[in-house]
Fold DUF2813 domain-containing protein.
Amino acid sequence: MYKRSNIIMMDKCFNEIEISHFRGFDYIKIANLTKLNVFVGSNNVGKSSILEAVFMLSGMSNPIMPARINYWRIPSANNMNSTRYLFHNIDLNNRPMLLARSDARIRRLTFYPFQQNNAVPSSDDTSMSSDIKQLNFDFDTKEEGVFSYHATLFTDLSGVLQQTVDANYKEDLNCLFIPADKNDTNATNNFATLVKRNKKQIVIDALKEFDPRIDP
């Protein structure tokens, strides 16, 4: 099966991305990206994870992103604990690092759980039974050096998700992400409508972009 990137970035697109310690990836680098990219592979090889990493980079100043993409994948309680699945091997010591290059532009993002008194998390801290109270986000438009911008996602005393954003950073990138479970909604009815309007060829031409062997 394939996943088509449903990511529209106006007049901007990423040429290269690097993903470290994110979901099932220890490290992966994807180069020579174009405006249209198709990721091919069997189930559970990381196609959705790549798109989620790109989406997080596109909105790196928005700390609610991790909780949101987890909810899209598996609808559940929208809380901090669901974000543990973004860490490689569900180990909170594996700090994710996401990086994208676009011509001369750079986007870099990392996030990690807040530890009281700067303590190093133990194996117990990273277990499935431990609670995540806060995630810290560091991001920048430079490839190296200390991160210039910071944000947080945390649970308040009432158990409600709250966030702080960096007022010094202004986002200039617009991105649309359509979760996989939303792609097929009403697809059959929509295609039937196109057929009735004698516009079936539009779909055929689009499919041939992926496989020229497709016949009407």
In short: Residues 184-215 form one domain. The beta strands are 2-4, 16-22, 25-30, 38-40, 97-102, 105-113, 134-140, 149-155, 161-164. Residues 1-10, 116-120 have pLDDT under 50 and may be disordered.
